[in-house]
Structures are given as structure tokens and as C-alpha cells.
Amino acid sequence: MDELIQALRYAMKSEIDSVTIYSEAALRAESDVALFFASRAEEEKRHYNWLLRYYKEMEGGRMPTTNLAAEIQAIPYKSPMFSQEFLTRVASDRHVSAAVSSAVLLELNATQHYRKMADLAQEPHLKAFFLSLSEWENRHYEELLKIQEDSRHYWFEEQNFEPF
Hints:
Blueprint: H1 2-28, H2 31-59, H3 68-73, H4 84-92, H5 94-120, H6 124-158
Helix pairs in contact: 1-2, 1-5, 4-6, 5-6
């Protein structure tokens, strides 16, 4: 139980880090890029709140009884399409481009961490919850990795390469 509580705390911190990166990128970006990052920030806030619900239950010394896996699975997930204009806008802003690079690592880390938490969980609904989160974060990871790879070409075209 203690190990699971510590894992939840780590996960909540990671979700807050993701919210911060996505929110800052949304503020710096424009149009559909800003909307993309704002939607990611909202998703990560939802993840944090789910984790917080479990954490509060477990902090009291009891295993959570809430079945959040069903709540997660009920949310439709549609992978966005990234236009050339979207990728160029990402590449043209160094802060946004850096946010994508950071977010790739955060999402990969989250995917692996939730999978580990699923392995630690004894309760079937906790195991299902963490596996669902792992799958959700893995979709984020794959999308961001695609943005990072596909915008790389535009990044070199957009940068002025001036000395610091």
C-alpha cells in the first residue's frame, strides 16, 4: 500500500508537470496549435484529478473502491490529424518546439510509470485504471513523437540559426 501511495504521488507530480508544459505551450502558440496544447492540458488535469481521488482514498488507509477505469474508457478518444501548417507553426516557435520535446519524454515516462503501477496493483479495478491511463498516455506519446518527427523538417527551414 505504501509503495502504491508513493507511486500515486509521483504520478500526480508528473501530471502537474504535463499540465504546466501544455499550458505554457498553449499560451505561446496560436490557432490550432494553441487549441491542441490547451486540450492536452485539460486532459492532464483530468488525469491528475482521477489520481487525486484514489490518493485521498488510499491516504486514509483503505483501498479505493471507485471504478475510474470505466470512466476513462467511456471517454471517446480521437487522434488529431496534423497538417503541414500545424507542423510549421510548431517548428517556427522554439518554445513550442521545446515543449513538444519535453512532453514526448513526460508522456513516455507516464506510460511506463502507469504500466508499473498496474503491475503493483492487486485490486482488479486499480489494475484496469492504471492500464487505461498507460494506454491513454501512450497515445499522447505517439502523437507527440509524430509531431516532433514530422515538424523536424520544418524546424530547420524556420530557424534563422543566429548566434546566441
